[in-house]
Structures are given as structure tokens and as C-alpha cells.
Amino acid sequence: MPPSPPTVLLNQRQIAQRIEEMAQELAPQLTEEPVVVGLLKGAFVFTADLVRALSALGVKPLVDFLWVASYGQATTSPGVLQWHMEGHQPLQGRQVLLLDDILDSGNTLKRVTDSLKEKGVSHLLTAVMLDKPSRRSVPIQADCVGFCIPDGFVVGYGMDHGERHRQLPFIGLLEP
Ligand code: 5GP
Ligand code: MG
Questions:
Q1: For 132-148, what is the mean pLDDT?
Q2: From the CB of 105, is ligand 1 less than 6 Å away?
Q3: Residue-wise pLDDT tens digits, 41-75
Q4: What is the pLDDT of residue 75?
Q5: CA–CA separation, 72 vs 74, rounded Å?
Q6: How far is the CA of 45 from the centre of ligand 2 (A)?
Q7: Ligand 2 geometric centre to CA of 38 (Å)
Q8: Predicted pLDDT at 73
Q9: What is the secondary structure of the chain as a DSSP string?
Q10: pLDDT at 76 over 50
Q11: Are 5 and 171 in contact (CB under 8 A)?
Q12: Ligand 1 contacts CB of residue 133 (under 6 A)
């Protein structure tokens, strides 16, 4: 039997409205030219939407990406973070807005924020599209959260399951 398609958890209209609100929340805390760092691959759509919403509010971010993958769930030991790609923007003394798709156990955000601080970032803000607070194992919060969701595996809006579903314009729930 083919796997069931994802069911809509958050539709395009809800996402677009929340992106506008997040930009409104973040813009007053940002300098005119912050560095926005998106975490690949999952945050590529979120990053694209948020920088354009920030642009409408007069923010002119430099955009960069880091590619990390965590293998907390099934494969190797929990909390191991593999760095596939470093960013290219100099971060020393800069304000950085770090974006991720989902804040789950907190391992990824903790490791990456620690690493950015070591690189001499002057002011670090974090924003995530989704937060699953019930799954946290590292005590960390994002400065700006799109939606808090219950535990469950979500796809779409950049997020995948085995590289599939990233293209979906909505956030959907996969049946276990
Ligand atoms: P953490 O390090 O906080 O446990 O995990 C964060 C990363 O795990 C996210 O950036 C995301 O890549 C992945 N992840 C966690 N929950 C989900 C989920 O429900 N769906 C998808 N597609 N990825 C998830
Ligand atoms: Mg990720």
C-alpha cells in the first residue's frame, strides 16, 4: 500500500499571515543590515519568505546558509550534528538572525548558536517556524516562534521525509 499523503496542519494562508507577524516582531530588534543565516535544508523556504517580509519593513539582510544534519531519531547516537557546509559571510561583530524549520530536542539550535557565538557574533537572535516544546531535551528557546505544535512528524514548507514533500506549500502531518 502506498504511504498516505500528509494531512494539512497549517495552510498557506495561515503561514503567510504568521510570516508577516514574525517580520513585524523581529524588524524592530534588527539593525538595518543583519546577517540572516538559514539552516539547510529544512529552513530554505522559511528563510526565503521571512527575508522578503523583512525587506518590506526596510531591513536589508545579508543572507547565508549553514548545512547541518542531526541524527537524533533513528540512525546514529542522539545529538550528533554533522556539518555539511559552513557559511561564507564574516560574522565577527555582526548581528545574526538564525533561522531553523523546527525546534525539536533543541540539540541543533544549541550546537549552532554555541558555534556562532564562538565566531564572535555580536548579537544573536533565533527564529523557528515550528516549535515542539514537548520534545525538548536541551533547555533552549527561540526568540521568535511561528507556531507551537504537538508532537508528530511534519513535512512541507521546506521540510522532508526522506527528501520528499519539501515542495509542498503547506505544513502537513504524516501518519505514523
Ligand atoms: P533538534 O536538533 O531540535 O532535535 O531537531 C531539529 C531538526 O530535526 C530540525 O531542524 C528538523 O530538520 C528535524 N526535525 C525535527 N522534527 C521534525 C519533523 O517533524 N519533521 C521534519 N521533516 N524534520 C524534523
Ligand atoms: Mg533541520
A1: 96
A2: yes
A3: 999 999 999 999 999 999 999 999 999 887 645 43
A4: 39
A5: 6
A6: 12
A7: 10
A8: 52
A9: -PPPPPEEEE-HHHHHHHHHHHHHHHGGGS-SSPEEEEEETTTHHHHHHHHHHHHTTT---EEEEEEEEE--SSSSSTT-EEEEE---S--TT-EEEEEEEEESSSHHHHHHHHHHHHTT-SEEEEEEEEE-GGG--S----SEEEEE--SSEEEBTTB-BTTBSTT-SSEEEEP-
A10: no
A11: no
A12: no
Instruction: State the cell numbers at 154.
Output: 511534519
pLDDT per position as a tens digit, 89-127: 788 999 999 999 999 999 999 999 999 999 999 999 999
Q: Which three cell numbers stand for residue 26?
A: 523581529
CA nearest to 136, candidates 158, 99, 110: 110
Residue of 68, 101, 170 to mutate, ligand 1, most atoms within 8 A of C-beta: 101
Query: Residue length, the chain?
Result: 176
For 143, the grid coordinates are: 526568540
pLDDT at 172 over 60: yes
pTM of the shown model: 0.93
Give me the active site residues, please: 104
